[in-house]
Automatic annotation (TrEMBL):
<comment type="similarity">
    <text>Belongs to the MYST (SAS/MOZ) family.</text>
</comment>
<dbReference type="GO" id="GO:0006281">
    <property type="term" value="P:DNA repair"/>
</dbReference>
<keyword id="KW-0234">DNA repair</keyword>
<dbReference type="Pfam" id="PF01853">
    <property type="entry name" value="MOZ_SAS"/>
</dbReference>
<keyword id="KW-0227">DNA damage</keyword>
<dbReference type="GO" id="GO:0010485">
    <property type="term" value="F:histone H4 acetyltransferase activity"/>
</dbReference>
<dbReference type="GO" id="GO:0003682">
    <property type="term" value="F:chromatin binding"/>
</dbReference>
<keyword id="KW-0805">Transcription regulation</keyword>
<dbReference type="GO" id="GO:0005634">
    <property type="term" value="C:nucleus"/>
</dbReference>
<protein>
    <recommendedName>
        <fullName>Histone acetyltransferase ESA1</fullName>
        <ecNumber>2.3.1.48</ecNumber>
    </recommendedName>
</protein>
<dbReference type="InterPro" id="IPR002717">
    <property type="entry name" value="HAT_MYST-type"/>
</dbReference>
<feature type="compositionally biased region" description="Polar residues">
    <location>
        <begin position="23"/>
        <end position="33"/>
    </location>
</feature>
<keyword id="KW-0007">Acetylation</keyword>
<feature type="region of interest" description="Disordered">
    <location>
        <begin position="1"/>
        <end position="33"/>
    </location>
</feature>
<dbReference type="Pfam" id="PF17772">
    <property type="entry name" value="zf-MYST"/>
</dbReference>
<dbReference type="InterPro" id="IPR016181">
    <property type="entry name" value="Acyl_CoA_acyltransferase"/>
</dbReference>
<dbReference type="GO" id="GO:0006357">
    <property type="term" value="P:regulation of transcription by RNA polymerase II"/>
</dbReference>
Amino acid sequence: IEWPKNHDEPNGLRQTECPMRPNEQSNYALPNENTPKIRNIEKIQFGQHLIDTWYFSPYPNEYSQCRIIYICEFCLCHFSCEKQLRRHAKKCTIRHPPGNEIYRDDNVSFFEIDGRRQLKYCRNLALLSKLFLDHKDLKYDIDEKNCETNYNLSCILTLPQHQRKGYGRLLISFSYELSKIEGQIGTPERPLSDLGLTSYYSYWQEAILDICMEAAQNKRELSIEEISVRTSIDTDDVISTLHFLNAFREYKRHIAIVLDHRLIALYKEIKARKKLTIAENRFDPRYKKNVLIVGFAEEN
């Protein structure tokens, strides 16, 4: 394995740069300097689901006296009583997120939403998400569309009624498929929560071992940069994942990746797990490189 340029060898990595198991403390999720705010909404009614909330969200002050707020599952508008929601439902014409559908298979659809054009929807989405996210500072401001960072994902959330079904990992996988289409190397925005880091670790592990196993079977050399290019995973994330897997060994004064019986058994176990996957041929054929930069077609 050729060691990437401008990187220290794995022995020089800090422990906090390596993915951690769920029961280990992570230094990625740094505490907010501000005093934590008390949860202001107890429950939300979302479609057929009555959901307990987890954290504070900056809904308007008039909602702080409501034990339950009612949210339209289509446009995400919020109401203080069920009667208001029913009245709204008779007039609401939205039946899917207000954007371009860029992917569909038998299980899921993905929509690309322009925050500049769908400001209200994105604000409602941010308010809803903050009820279940502690380590993110969600705000009304819409960040610039063409960001110079290499983040391919800033924030993901699976609502409680749909958790433990593989959707979090599917969202991570989708973000890297977008990076591949755009020809970019990506990494998630930090800090990551323990749960987020565990989900990323699960994805990185399989994606990286796929490439390593292929190279080993074909008895050919493989560099960290090649792994990064083929997976669109940032080289730092590749290194830290392999370091966590204890895959690095010194060989003839060089650093090599060794796929021992332990890693081979782990790889077989990973591939045997049932999981939701992204099919490359299910993307909208109009969705090509730089479509996010070009923007949306004008509505008729």
